[in-house]
Structure formats: C-alpha cells, structure tokens
Design brief:
The chain contains 14 helices and five strands. The chain is mostly helical. It has two domains: 342 residues, no CATH class; 68 residues, no CATH class. A three-stranded antiparallel beta sheet has the order 1-3-2, with no helix packed on it. It has a two-stranded antiparallel sheet with strand order 4-5. It is globular. About 3% of the residues have low confidence.
C-alpha cells in the first residue's frame, strides 16, 4: 500500500519518494517492520494466549526438560503470520502475481495449522486435525500454486540468446525483445518463454524442462506438461511443510533454520529477478520475481523476531499454525523462483528430520515382521530427540543444527557458479 502512495508522490515530484522503487530499500523496511511487529506486538499476543490458557500439552517421553514446557503458550505462529503479511501488504506491489501467490499460500497454510492447534488446545483433542484433512489442505494449496505458476500469463522466463537473423522460432512459445546486432551477423536478444523449466544444481547448462518427463507422448508433450508439473508441486509443498512441522520440536530449531533458508532464498530471488545478475551468472531471468525479495525479507524478519521469544527457554511455541506455514512458504517460494530441485540441499535439516522418522518407522515395522520384535535405528525420532536421548543439552542441539543448516545454505548459494 505504501508503495502505491510513494509512487503517486513521485509523480508530483515529492522529494525522496523515488527511493521506494528500489527493491533493496523496501526489503530493508520489510525486515524492520516485521521485527517490530513480532517483537513488540508478540509480547501482547503471548499475554493474550496465556489469558486464554492456550498452553502446550506435553507427553512425558523421558526427555530432559520436556515436562517443564507444560503449559507454555502455543499457537504463536500467529505472530509469525502477522509479521509476514502486514509488511508485505504495506511495502510490496500487490498486483504482482508472485506476491499474490505467496500471500495466499501463507494464509491458507496458516489456517490449516490454526485449525489443528485449535482442536488440540480448545477441544482438548491431542490428535488435532485428522491427518487426511491436513493432506487435503496441503494438496489444495499445491494445486493452486502449481496452476498459477503454470497457467498464468504473468509467469514467464526470459533468457539471452545469440542467433542468426534467419533463425525461425515458434511464435506461440517465444518472442524477441531488445534485439541488437552482434558479431558475425548474429542477433542478441532476450527471449520470453512459458516453458515449465527449472534449475538443476551442479550441472552445466543446468536447465531441466518438465516436458522431457512426458516426451514419450510425442508432439503434444509441451501442452500436457501440467499433468506432471502439478503433482510434483503438490509433492514438494506437502513434503517440505511436513518437514518443517517435524523439525519444530526444540526451542528455536524450526524458527532459526527457516530464517537461514529464507536468507538464501532471498539471494536467489534477487539475482533471478535482476537481468544484469542473471546474465552475469548465466541463470534464468524471471521477470517481476525480484518483488519476492520484499516478501522473503518480511519472512526472515518474522522468524528472527519470533526467535526472541522462542529461543531457549521458549516463552511461546509456534504450533502447527507456524510450522506448517513456514514449510509451505519455503516450498512455494522455491518453486516460484525455479529452485525446487535445490530443496534437498537447502532444506537439508528438514530432510534429515523427515528421513529419520521414515527410517525409524520403516525399520521398526520390518524387524517386527522378521523377528517378531520391532527394533530401532535411533533412540528416538525425529533426529533431534535422538540427540536429546544421548544426553546433549537442548540449546547445544539447536545451535549445531543451525550450523548444519548454515552449511547447507552456503552450499546452495555456491551452486550459482559451481556447475
């Protein structure tokens, strides 16, 4: 909203109004606003949750310090959601398709988590929202996100090509812009495409077209890519959302890890949305995607601000209201900037947590069938509880997981040049 106000002020030559055109300036403001909202208003929300007796119900699993958390306010994800949505509404361009997508995803997934927490806390049902309904909600937002990213005319790619003037390119798929004469009679042009392509990390000429997966259908493959693209988006959104939910088991673990991932995604969004950097790094240029930097700046600020209250010992837990939303936001954002194949590295902590649960359950069932008694790989799953069982202090586990997450983030950034 402020963007449009300052855009108007610039037309009447108001001094300094033009600074709002800079992504970096608005991103900095988004971080500041989200920190203010989460840190100042967060305390009031925590007090309100305490008055409503919205306390976490803790099961005694024999973990050090676990019982002491009984009664700590939950549903603190409301703080995160407010600190993301409000700065975005104030500072971003609300006619941008990527901003609209991220706001819808945030509200949608936050609502699913809120319903789950509400059932647990107010209805006193420890199971919360039935798993099948959670999955339906995640599939729903995956379907919406995939449809927008595939079918919207505002979602395109542009890449720099050098070609002969005589080269014929199908007008239905591509168009020339900013043509200029090059050496040897070549034409240098930015080419706009609607192709469903993504980035493969660590691979030279690292673009993957989803149409390849259904190339066996023949000439109609390009028009049927959505058949494979939408299920992939749904799978990614569901997996990462659940991964963040699994990670939210220790004070500050999911919050800090998400902030690190958010900073990395912000770097990718900035370079992908700036044709100068995209050209220099030889990566996909995604027009208008730089506006996502405003959103992810608010996301990072919200996570850091919430960490003020969520760090050990936590004064509030985010609950599923926050964890489901954080994971889903990360997934949709990564898909929007064509970095979804980087998720196993970037979200390595989430992946480890998810895999530890899958391995534990799978091995237990296998050994029970084979030996009549279930055996375990880890002392307890998810992985962070395994280390608690080994006697490590909660704060040390969280700090080390952050360090691992930072290493994964740096490795992800390196993929911009290392291929």
């Amino acid at each position: 909203m402020l963007y449009y106000l300052f855009e108007y002020l610039e037309t009447v030559n108001f001094p300094g109004a033009g600074v709002f055109q800079y992504i970096s300036f608005r991103a900095a403001l988004a971080i500041i606003f989200s920190l203010i909202i989460s840190m100042l208003f967060g305390k009031r929300i925590i007090q309100l949750l305490q008055k409503q007796q919205v306390g976490e119900i803790i099961r005694d699993l024999g973990l050090q310090g676990q019982i002491e958390k009984q009664g700590t306010p939950t549903m603190g994800g409301l703080i995160i959601l407010a600190a993301i949505i409000l700065p975005t509404l104030l500072l971003a361009r609300l006619d941008n398709v990527y901003i609209i997508l991220m706001l819808v995803s945030t509200v949608w997934l936050g609502a699913i988590g809120f319903i789950d927490d509400y059932i647990k806390v107010f209805k006193k049902n420890k199971k919360g929202l039935a798993g099948k309904f959670k999955v339906v909600g995640q599939v729903g937002i995956g379907l919406i996100a995939g449809s927008i990213l595939y079918f919207s005319d505002d979602v395109v790619l542009r890449e720099k090509v050098v070609t002969d003037d005589a080269t014929v390119i199908e007008a239905s798929a591509l168009s020339y812009d900013n043509e200029k004469a090059g050496e040897d009679g070549k034409t240098v042009a930015w080419v706009t495409s609607k192709a469903a392509r993504t980035t493969i990390p660590f691979v030279k000429n690292n673009e993957f077209d989803y149409a390849w997966l259904i190339s066996w259908v023949g000439d109609n493959a390009a028009g049927l890519v959505w058949i494979i693209f939408l299920p992939i988006v749904i799978l990614i959104v569901t997996s990462v959302s659940n991964g963040a939910n699994m990670t939210d088991g220790l004070d500050g673990l999911a919050t800090g890890t998400s902030a690190i991932i958010g900073v990395t995604l912000g770097i990718f969004a900035y370079v992908s949305g700036n044709y100068i950097f995209a050209d220099y790094l030889n990566i996909m240029y995604i027009p208008d995607s730089a506006e996502l930097v405003i959103f992810i700046a608010a996301f990072v600020g919200a996570c850091v601000g919430f960490l003020w209250y969520n760090s050990y010992p936590a004064q509030v837990f985010m609950g599923d209201t926050g964890s489901l939303a954080l994971g889903g936001i990360i997934a949709v954002f990564a898909i929007a900037i064509r970095k979804e194949l980087l998720i196993p590295i970037l979200c390595g902590v989430f992946l480890m947590e998810n895999l530890s649960v899958m391995m534990q359950v799978g091995y237990f069932k296998y050994t029970k069938r084979k030996y009549g008694e279930g055996r375990r790989i880890f002392k307890m799953a998810p992985l962070h509880h395994h280390y608690q069982k080994l006697g490590y202090h909660e704060a040390k586990i969280v700090s080390r997981f952050w360090i691992v997450g930072l290493a994964f983030a740096l490795l992800s950034v390196v993929t911009l040049k290392l291929r």
